[in-house]
Design goal:
With about 120 residues, this protein is an alpha+beta fold. About 20% of the residues lie in helices and about 30% in strands.
């Protein structure tokens, strides 16, 4: 079973973030993806009603290539639709184009009402 949720467990956040990004989480809250009850990925978000940022999303190296990152990212965007006026990805990646994001300088942005979820989700 796959689940995700926010946690302020600093030990868990730092351990998972370090395993993925080689540095502890810079903040208090991590959004953790669990696969069969075991932490598999972490995301850092900054959420406000006006503008929410996807700062980074990562999956443990041993679990990459199985679609968990795609599932995790789609789930995070789905949550943000109802809580913010604008979603910003703090880096440029063609991955976000299929959802309707447009590039603005060194970021990707979208009005949540224009977010499109393609049918294909690569989770195995």
């Amino acid at each position: 079973m796959i689940s995700l949720g926010a946690t302020n467990d600093k030990t868990l956040n730092d351990k998972l973030h370090t395993a993925i990004f080689s540095a502890p989480l810079d903040g208090d809250v991590g959004y953790v993806l669990n696969v069969d009850g075991v932490p598999a990925g972490i995301a850092k978000l900054i959420v406000t009603p006006e503008e929410s940022h996807i700062v980074r999303v990562g999956i443990l190296p041993k679990l990459r290539g199985k679609g968990y990152g795609d599932f995790f990212t789609r789930s995070l965007m789905n949550v943000l639709i109802d809580v913010t006026d604008k979603i910003v990805v703090d880096y440029v990646s063609d991955y976000y184009l299929k959802f309707g994001f447009v590039r603005e300088g060194d970021k990707m942005v979208i009005d949540p009402e224009k977010l499109v979820f393609p049918r294909q989700c690569r989770h195995e």
